[in-house]
Design goal:
With about 450 residues, this protein is mainly α. The chain has one domain: Cytochrome p450 (Orthogonal Bundle). It contains 19 helices and nine strands. A hairpin with a 5-residue loop joins strand 3 and strand 4. The radius of gyration is 22 Å and the shape is globular. Bound molecules: protoporphyrin IX containing FE and 2-acetamido-2-deoxy-beta-D-glucopyranose. The site of 2-acetamido-2-deoxy-beta-D-glucopyranose (NAG) has 4 residues, from helix 6. 2-acetamido-2-deoxy-beta-D-glucopyranose (NAG) binds next to helix 6.
Length: about 450
């Protein structure tokens, strides 16, 4: 037993050493090379596997390859677009709940609980097909357990002495972790069995296009249903694998998107002129009346898209990426890394490098993403074969929340003194504002 602990601790120490050594790996050529060629993740990932098993996100390449192949069709544009209606409804709910809870015209409040309820609600509906309005039912067991679970994992990741199970299992929050895990697993398993029963007579071979995309039925199919149908073909997922993947969507898709939305709102409060430009675009596309958003509208929000990209560049929700080289590897710029070296890519560093983004790299300038302008390496969703599979979904969900809020309310915060914005953030895997995003809203 002692030996196992020692080994684990030793490995952790090794990663930390290399973290310090490689934290400056911000040369875009090397980073691009690593993201395309080094698909294995360093050992820190094994910790996260305790919550989500071997789901694609942290799995060893040997397992990941097959899983990614099955996930890809589930994230096709057709399926992502079919979620439009759900996201219209959820983003409208967000705007309504903000005013129901008297957050409009009443001074500053923490935006985080509202925005994270939006992303959790909408990912639950698109991933599992369940509708739980968290803000209306804050005591909902499942969402509460899911959000507790993720913050417990995040806390553990930044406290390396808690990594070995033998130590973690002795502290009180581990009990909470296992209890929450059980709630999330039990409900997910129940839903998987229900959906399998519902879908058992669907013959995928006969008519795969229509079946997969649900064109025969009015009902929009959730990710889980698509994965069950995809699983009917050889090489699909087992029940445990289904659960792992679906829970991963919750883990990978909620806090990341919430942070992106909150950071964008914060920056728009700091720069009211840019906010006015976003508002004018909304009015141009949707008109002044309350016309609900439709599928073809989204691509018209060109300025908003630049604002979101610029926000993700300056404040990437996932500021580092973790990989490792499995064999001795020569980087394009000449350094040779020995086998089994852990690599930390600093997304933050890459995004603010003056050499590639210009002397104003720290400044908030959405127009740097105009099509005719040159940019540096843009990797908030990573890149290469193991990039974020959910990035189109994420952009859609982030855009829709922002449109629903900004068309009704003006966001007010502290205006920034200069062109280089600061947000006081805390790192716990992700980079979230310490103050839970204190903002104020005024009705338009
Ligand atoms: C603004 C929001 C988001 C950001 C910034 C983001 C960012 C990332 C990053 C940096 C990675 C790691 C890639 C790597 O290691 O190279 C990742 C992976 C992943 N993301 Fe996202 N993500 C977001 C939203 C989502 C959403 C909404 C979903 C699902 C609905 C999702 C699903 C995944 C999955 C499944 C992976 C693992 C991919 C693999 O290893 O094959 N993400 N994401
Ligand atoms: C969203 O959908 C639910 C269930 O269909 C409905 O009760 C609710 O009123 C809708 N919300 C909005 C804002 O359209």
């Amino acid at each position: 037993m002692a030996k196992i602990i020692l080994n684990e601790v030793k490995n952790d120490y090794y990663i930390i050493l290399f973290t310090i050594y490689f934290i400056g790996l911000t040369n875009p050529e090397d980073v691009d090379f690593v993201l395309k060629n080094c698909l294995e993740k360093a050992d820190v990932a094994t910790l996260l596997r305790k919550a989500i098993g071997n789901a694609g996100i942290f799995a060893p390449v040997s397992i990941w390859t097959r899983r990614r192949k099955i996930l890809i069709p589930a994230f096709s544009p057709k399926i992502i677009n079919s979620f439009m209606g759900i996201l219209v409804n959820q983003s409208e709910e967000l705007a309504i709940q903000l005013s129901h809870h008297k957050m409009v015209g009443t001074g500053r409040f923490a935006a985080w609980p509202f925005i994270s309820a939006y992303t959790l609600d909408s990912v639950c509906e698109t991933a599992l097909g369940i509708r739980i309005n968290y803000l209306r039912n804050p005591d909902n067991m499942f969402l509460k357990a899911a959000s507790n679970l993720f913050s417990l994992v995040a806390d553990r990741v930044v406290q390396i002495w808690l990594w070995p199970d033998v130590i973690y299992n002795c502290i009180p929050s581990s009990t909470e972790f296992y209890e929450n895990l059980k709630i999330v697993y039990d409900l997910t398993d129940k839903i998987i069995q229900q959906k399998k029963e519902e879908l058992k007579d669907v013959d995928v071979q006969l008519d795969s296009e229509n079946v997969i995309f649900g064109q025969n039925t009015k009902k929009v199919r959730c990710f889980l249903e698509h994965l069950i149908l995809l699983s009917k073909n050889a090489g699909g997922f087992t029940d445990v694998e289904l659960r792992e993947e679906v829970i991963t969507f919750l883990l990978a898709g909620t806090d990341t998107s919430s942070i992106a939305i909150c950071n964008t709102l914060t920056l728009l409060a700091k720069y009211p002129k840019i906010q006015e430009k976003v508002y004018r675009e909304i009015v141009e596309v949707l008109g002044e009346a309350d016309r609900p958003l439709e599928k073809d509208d989204l691509k018209e929000f060109k300025y908003l898209e630049r604002v979101i990209k610029e926000t993700l560049r300056l404040f990437p929700p996932a500021p580092i990426l973790i990989r490792k080289v499995t064999e001795e590897t020569k980087m394009p710029t000449g350094v040779t890394l020995p086998a089994d070296t852990g690599i930390i890519v600093s997304v933050w560093g890459i995004s603010r490098d003056k050499k590639y983004w210009g002397p104003d790299a720290d400044c908030f300038d959405p127009d740097r993403f105009l099509p005719d302008r040159k940019t540096g390496l843009f990797i908030p969703f990573s890149s290469g074969p193991r990039n974020c599979i959910g990035y189109q979904y994420a952009l859609m969900s982030v855009k829709m929340a922002l449109i629903a809020v900004l068309r009704r309310y003006r966001v007010i915060g502290e205006e920034e003194n200069g062109p280089a914005p600061t947000i006081d953030t805390k790192f716990n895997i992700m980079m979230k504002a310490k103050d839970n995003y204190q903002l104020a809203l005024e009705a338009r």
